[in-house]
UniProtKB/TrEMBL annotation:
Its main location: cytoplasm. Residues 147-184 are annotated as: Disordered. It is an enzyme of class 2 (transferase). Keywords: ATP-binding, Cytoplasm, Kinase, Nucleotide-binding, Transferase. This is Cytidylate kinase. It comes from Deinococcus soli. One of its GO terms (cellular component) is cytoplasm. InterPro entries: Cytidylate_kin, Cytidylate_kinase_dom, P-loop_NTPase. ATP binds at G7, V8, A9, A10, S11, G12, K13, S14, S15.
Amino acid sequence: MIVTIDGVAASGKSSVSSGVAQALGVPYVSSGLLYRAVTLLGLNAGADLADPSALLPLLSAVRLEPLASGNRVWNADHDLTADLHSTRVDGGVSTVAALPEIREWVDAQLRALPAPLVAEGRDMGTNVFPHAPHKFYLTASPRVRAERRARERPEDIPAIEAALTERDRQDTTQSAPAPDARIIDTGPLTLQGVIDTILNDLR
Ligand SMILES: Nc1ncnc2c1ncn2[C@@H]1O[C@H](COP(=O)(O)OP(=O)(O)OP(=O)(O)O)[C@@H](O)[C@H]1O
Ligand SMILES: Nc1ccn([C@H]2C[C@H](O)[C@@H](COP(=O)(O)O)O2)c(=O)n1
């Protein structure tokens, strides 16, 4: 069984997916972390983030570890995870995610993982796992998402809201909900409330 949980930036995808996966006793995979890892490696190498031929050679030893408690991304024996949610990576990741060659690489990593699993991102229900039987799409207003994210970042709420809105704009192409996804506005719900909504639907 595959459950897909897509949604806009900072809508709660990874927290919700982790909770759902732990309740089901299956792994979850965060596709955004792979796009973030490509971005980090590109920035560290001084590569042009719009040039797939400069990025693909950096990826031969990149591996996603789909732990239910929180995914980790490795480059050989170096754990990249702690550096993936920085403002620097946020600023470049949409450029990288727009490259078809990089999307193909990410999709191949995800499709190689054995089911059952919970997959989260933007196009899990539309493109990567279109035949998944259970699909969800999380939304919340930019202000609500910025207020939540401000607890994890040094920037103030208006700056975070502006950056989220810009990233939503840049990611529009791959971020449409699947026609058969259940759309959940997480604004009025607690994190546990969103997890319970999905688990009730699955039951
Ligand atoms: N329903 C909720 N109520 C309150 N806080 C929430 C809720 N859902 C998520 N959060 C909090 O919002 C923040 C962003 O959540 P999370 O990182 O899971 O989002 P995301 O969609 O995976 O983000 P990104 O797109 O940047 O990877 C976290 O601090 C999380 O704990
Ligand atoms: N399936 C996916 C997952 C992610 N992206 C892009 C869009 C985001 O800006 C970036 C980081 O993802 P996040 O950590 O916010 O989930 O990666 C995508 O295009 N497709």
